[in-house]
């Protein structure tokens, strides 16, 4: 049984192609209406192939900006950096002409960066926000039991939260739900049976914020398109 707004694909290859083309349409729509496009993408392993495929498409990339929904607090050269993953996916492809706006601020703590607000160039409403999810039901870096989670999942409030995830290694900076929902299109991309089960469970009635994904599925501010493959 699918979550409302969920499309299932036969395999990861067809999901990659479909989501890349869906993002391209959102970019073209933004360019036609405003002459520019700004998309937020997640970190982790899921978005890489999608971004590589998207970056191959013939779009006016110099008018496109990519931001991140969250960042591990490491330099962009670090193997764990989401910004590094994004830049690598674009490199050597037409999409390399797009602007990348990172969240990491050298010399600042995640708390200082959160207090400073979104970096210049990341101005909501975004044209598309793509999210991933963990098997623990987190999205962005809004992890279960993270300090400050209830405020970060409220429908309003500050756009950024410094997170010291109880489970994931190292501090992070995450956009809050309120900031992630300030977008013209919202996608959640997940693969694997474990995440499908978590999606299903989080779509049923249950305690708020447990898992954090429930707040994303429950909100009615921005329609959520879920894309899943085995
Ligand atoms: C991150 C991501 C995070 C990711 C999920 C899923 O910084 O890790 O933003 O929210 O989307 O953990 O990661 P995978 O795609 O690797 O399963």
- SS element count, helices: 8
Weakly predicted, low-confidence segments: none
Structural class by secondary-structure content: alpha/beta
Multimeric organization:
single chain
Give the termini distance in whole angstroms.
Answer: 14 Å
Beta fraction: 15-25%
Number of strands: 10
- One letter per element, helices H and strands E, the order comes to EHEHEEHEHEHEEHEHHE
Shape: globular
Strand arrangement, largest sheet?
1-10-9-6-2-3-5
Largest sheet geometry: 7 strands, parallel
3D structure, described in words:
By secondary structure, the protein is α/β, with parallel strands linked by helices. The protein contains eight helices and ten strands. Strands 1-10-9-6-2-3-5 form a seven-stranded parallel β-sheet, with helices on both faces. Strands 4-8-7 form a three-stranded antiparallel β-sheet. Strand 2, helix 2 (47-55) and strand 3 (64-68) form a beta-alpha-beta unit. It is globular. The structure holds 6-phosphogluconic acid. Residues 42-46, 69-70, 72, 82, 132-134, 138-141 line the site of 6-phosphogluconic acid.
